Amino acid sequence: MKPEPILELRHVDVAHGKTPVLMDICLEVGRGEIVTLIGANGAGKSTLLMALFGLPRVSRGEILLDGQEITRMATHRIARLGLAQVPEGRRIFPGMTVLENLVMGAADSAGDGKVLERIHTLFPILRERAGQRAGTLSGGEQQMLAIGRALMSKPRVLLLDEPSLGLAPLMIRRIFQALREIVDEGTTLFLVEQNANQALRLADRGYVLVNGRILLEGRGKALLANPEVRRAYLGGH
Q1: Which of 33, 55, 194, 198 is the most exposed place for a label (fewest CB within 10 A)?
Q2: CATH code for the domain in which residue 38 is found
Q3: Positive or negative: CA dihedral 169, 193, 159, 102
Q4: ω into residue 56 within 30 of 0, thus cis?
């Protein structure tokens, strides 16, 4: 049985100036699901994630979070409703310590030690490196920090933009294992990835974005086995 949607895009168009970037996007992320969006560079994946926070604004259609329309809502209000993002490139604060970076993501839960403990359980290295400047961490550790910072706001839906980018295979496996644990603990996950193999193995469902339009959708394993998807994104035949 398909879970009720917690995040919905209904016939969404987005443009940069007069140039269309996303066209007629219809997409659902069910409560407690991992849903992935795959596609080539320039397909519009990152723009779609940014549009969920109103940057850029949607030119047509609706975005709903748990049934409430957020299409033209201010970014800070959207965040308070339970949406958090781990941006591409991580965008940590390199001159601040690991702990200071985490606290920056806390929002209204600044005094909630349980959230910090949860993050330290997921990523023990962040406890070990709490006083270390974030810019001295490895790429994988910085990605863990970026995820931890987003989790500090106790989001209902966590958005991730290319979390495996530039990481070694072992670190990618560790990150994706942690993402599964995050969902098992009650957070819904919407993941944008070029690493289609890892993303579709992890995901309950997936969408394929091509030139600003969704051309395919289905269960993660079904898309992984789809010859068209394998040919385009997995080097298969």
Answers
A1: 55
A2: 3.40.50.300
A3: positive
A4: yes
Which tokens belong to 90? Answer: 């991580």
Cα gap 166→107, rounded to integer Å: 29
User: Are 118 and 107 contacting, i.e. CB atoms less than 8 angstroms apart?
Assistant: no
Which domain does 173 fall in, by range? 5-82+157-234
| CA 93/CA 149 separation, integer angstroms | 11
Burial class (CB in 10 A: 0-12, 13-18, 19+), 199: buried
Question: Do 162 and 62 fall within a single domain?
Answer: yes
Q: Give per-residue pLDDT as tens, 130-154.
A: 999 999 999 999 999 999 999 999 9
Number of domains in the chain: 2
Place of tokens 């070029």: 194
**Residue numbers of the chain with a pLDDT score lower than 50:** 110, 237
Last residue of one domain, picked from the residues 123, 154, 185: 154
Enter the tokens of residue 143.
């990605």
Phi, psi of 194 (to 5 degrees): -90, -25
